[in-house]
Amino acid sequence: MRWKWLFVFYWKRLLKSKLYVGASILFFVLLLVRFILFFSDDMNAGMEYSGDLPSEVFMLVQIVSLFYIVWFYFLYSNELRYGVSSWFADGYRILLEKMSALLAVHALCQGIMLMMSYGVFSLVYLFVGVEPSDLYWSLLRFLAVYQFGPLVLTVLYGVIIALLLETKKVSFFAMLLVWILTGPMTTELFIDLSQTVHARDWTSLLFIGKHAIQQAYDSYIGFEVDRGGEWKWAAWFLSLVGLALLSSIRFTQTRKERNAVLKALLIFPFLIVLTACHSLQTNTKAFTRADQTTELEEYRRMPQTIKADLRYRIQSYDISLHGSRAVVRVALSQLDTNRPTFQLYHLYPLHSIEADHQPVTFTRNGDLVTVRLPKRTSTLTFSYEIVDTALIPYTNGRIVLLADRAWYPKRRASHMYQAYEYRVAGTRAWDGAFTDQFVPNETYTFTLNVDGDVLFCNVPKRGTGYRGKAQAVTLIKGQGHQLVDQGYEITYPADWPHMAERAPTVIRQLKKTFHHVQQIASTAVSSLPNKIVFSSSGLSSFMAHDHLVYNTNFFSIGTYHMERDYYEKMLRLSVPPKGSRIMYNEWISLATRWLMQKQGLSVIDWSSKSEWFESQPSSVKKQIEAIYQAFQPLDVDQKQQCLRTWYANMDDGWTWDRILEMMQEVNGVGGRH
Predict the structure, then answer these.
(1) Last residue of a domain, which of 443, 478, 513?
(2) Cα–Cα dist 673/671, whole Å
(3) Which residues cross the membrane (predicted)?
(4) Angstrom distance (rounded) from CA 402 to CA 477
(5) Quick one: 420 and 277 in the same domain?
(6) Average pLDDT score over residue span 417-440
(7) What is the C-alpha separation between 600 and 598, in angstroms, rounded?
(8) How far is Cα 543 from Cα 34, in angstroms, rounded to an integer?
């Protein structure tokens, strides 16, 4: 009964507090301001990035949490100042009841704020046209972890500082320090440190927020919500409750009370370690800077030239995916070696390889697996685990297995990802690409049995599974939507709005641009694939005969064809590299400008070169600049002829002087007409 009256008492105090209520109102005022700034940004005109809107709560939580900490500190320290609890025989029990009642009242208020925030975000999503899906449920879970959770803890910060320092002046410094070190913006404030912390390092437990606060949503994977974040909050909560109890021991009045508190505290380390371990085991790597940096660094260190034996032919794949366990049966049509090499993602634990149902030994060198066969065989069975990594995230049962990733054994002699170095303005820079950006032309028969709901698969569905011929397989289990327009099957992320209205314009532009590309170069595929997967972040882009995966980067799907990046990407997706890297890139650079001119776009920077230009010797730079000067005054048809001749003849013996001569010849012929 007394706890009930304490709850009512603190509820009334809270509602009458100008500081607490003002901070709560400030939260929504700032949220409204952030919405206005977001919608006024031209880059967000298409709202492809509405999924990242909830990331605004990190800054807002950081701001208002200071006001909450101050209010709870003053409220509790003023009560402790007069030592009212010591006037009663059960004064220590009253002290604990006050703490729990205050925590309950604050949690109730934050629960109301959580639902209000969820309502605001949901209305915004509905307003911009985000279709109903389980995205809305994961939005609530995201806000619960990153808004409700950190704000609930503020009451414990204030109470602990009051218990330890009471009304001492140093308490103000303590509140400021706690506010900085425990806020969700900590990873951004100390970015140099957070960039080195992996998802499953114990150091990650020191951060209550995300490692990269700018990105809240990943295409098809969803919001960064998993059991790891929830277990981490539980570990923080238990740690703070335990610290509050430890800080309150000096207010006990009897030895019995002190012993009871000490006995209760004995169980807290066990619970804290248990929840912390669960957090580290279930944390996702999908949104963590350090995990991706480390993974790419591994590829930089891997030797690019590796002895591989590809004297075999694959006839078919039988792939079974149940949960995280993958079993792939590879049927061979030809085998001329006892040491066949396969490409398989090196971060996937490979449990066993069997030949004719008998285990065989194998060795791994990066993504390359060499099987040691005692005798020739017609089938190999690979058993391995699909795990969460930076390049292929696997979170909450959602996964995007792209055809350019080695998520099943492939007949390749290179790693899945290749890193290369170049120089920009005299500084060292790194870039990389997946080696299957241009998927080989050979096709195989694929049979897939997958549990759970599959959003996309380029192999046709047959009954409960998937079966058909393809160059490679893309399989997506995640949040997203699909539609059919002009005979094209379009898959897009769950946070993309109004795609039914925008798809016709996008398809027409893709078809037109692809047709123009075919006028200047031989493309890897003969026509635009009728299955298209769009994304706004996280995925690579590639084009196979039967499907296209296209990442719009930082552009709206409705307006990206007005930008240079769109035309450059279409060229890189469809035109295989030839000749030297610098020459191919300069061809891409000039072909991009020709495509933009073909579309009638007026703003074209003819002076810009490729990113490889700065790494060239001065003599080569002068030759390239002369080519740009000769190319710009040509008319559209002359440019087309130059680009077509350049690409057709581009090889290791094709020189810059020869290209310049060719342009001058074309210009002379055009001038005589």
Answers:
(1) 478
(2) 5
(3) 20-37, 57-76, 101-128, 148-165, 172-191, 233-252, 264-281
(4) 11
(5) no
(6) 77
(7) 5
(8) 37
Looking at the structure, do residues 273 and 172 belong to the same domain, yes or no? yes
One domain, residues 184 and 329: no
In this structure, are 199 and 280 located in the same domain?
yes
Band of pLDDT at residue 671, cut at 50, 70 and 90: very low
Strands 531-535, 488-493: pairing is parallel
Within 323-464, strands assigned E span 325-335, 341-343, 350-355, 358-365, 368-372, 379-385, 394-395, 398-401, 417-424, 427-434, 444-450, 456-457, 461-462
Residues facing residue 600 across a β-bridge: none
Which residue bears the tokens 């425990």?
182
Of the candidates 155, 151, 157, the one whose C-alpha atom is nearest the C-alpha of residue 100 is 155
Predicted pLDDT at 188: 85
Bridge partners (DSSP) of residue 371 are 362
Written as one letter, the residue type at 18 is: K
Residue range 191-230, pLDDT digits in tens? 888 888 888 889 889 888 888 888 888 899 988 888 888 9
Using the Cα atoms of residue 516, residue 517, residue 523 and residue 528 in order, give the sign of their dihedral.
Answer: negative
Structural tokens at position 415: 């790693």
The pLDDT tens digits for 582-604 are 889 889 989 998 998 888 877 67
Binning pLDDT at 50, 70 and 90, where does residue 136 land? Answer: very high
In a domain, 302, yes or no: no
